[in-house]
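Q: Give me the 3D complex with nicotinamide-adenine-dinucleotide.
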Amino acid sequence: TGDLMKGKRGLVMGVANKNSIAWAIAQQLHAQGAEMAFTYVGEGLERRVRPLAESLGAEVIIPCDVTDDTSMDEAFKTIEDKWGKIDFLVHAIAFADKEALKGSFVANTSREVFARAMDVSAFSFVDAANRASKIMNPGGSMITLTYLGSERVIPNYNMMGVAKAALEAATRYIARDLGKEGIRVNAISAGAIKTLSLGGIAGARSLLSEGRAWAPLREDTDPVGVAGAALYLLSDLGKSCTGETHHVDAGFHIVGMPEEDAIRG
Ligand code: NAD
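A: Here is the predicted complex, encoded as structure tokens.
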């Protein structure tokens, strides 16, 4: 514990349950004194998110579907009414239809599936960043979560990889725009972590096991490490860092070919 986030208030979007990356981030921000508001989608998830958020003393726990303008309007208005200004935003939201997360990308990606994945997984950060910037103090900071499938071809990641490429490019353009206001915008490219979302990708288990076998650290990505990077980027420790995609993946992204003992028979 410490006070790196003392006096800072922010919005955390994307906690679904205790395995969510956003939850690991929220816990670490709380331990450093941050005050947070949380959003969730649907009553089913409210039952999971509310007790978690309350355990960190959250007073603002509100529904927000990023595909619905009215829902976004209401969520950001609630936060503005409550606090006036915020200091940070955590965006940890993604979705693609299951049929687009297996087999052939070119054959399994319809117009509707493409548009939906881009809307929820990439545009939602543009929209949330724009809304958040209007109530963000100078010195504020925003992060989003991405994955290596944006840069390299990863089996079954397919449409989500294309959406993450858009998300990372959007991060750079948003950083350019909001830099003038003293706001920093970065992405964390996390290695595979066992969450609800990961379960939607065909062969998710091999994303984990291959990641572990190839990565220089030879271990799973620890959500605590991802949260540590989030703390750095969202606190004043991250001063001068903006527009960056920072990999926290046990080093998986640097490997071009696995060591012999990591190649499966
Ligand atoms: P998760 O399932 O816990 O979180 C995904 C969140 O997206 C959920 O809270 C869900 O409610 C939210 N969401 C989906 N559609 C939404 C909508 N229309 N409106 C509002 N919220 C919506 O899984 P996670 O793995 O913690 O995912 C968080 C982020 O991290 C995602 O962007 C994901 O792509 C990214 N990421 C995950 C991994 C991994 O291996 N788990 C690796 C790298 C990046």
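A quick observation: The chain has one domain: 9-252.
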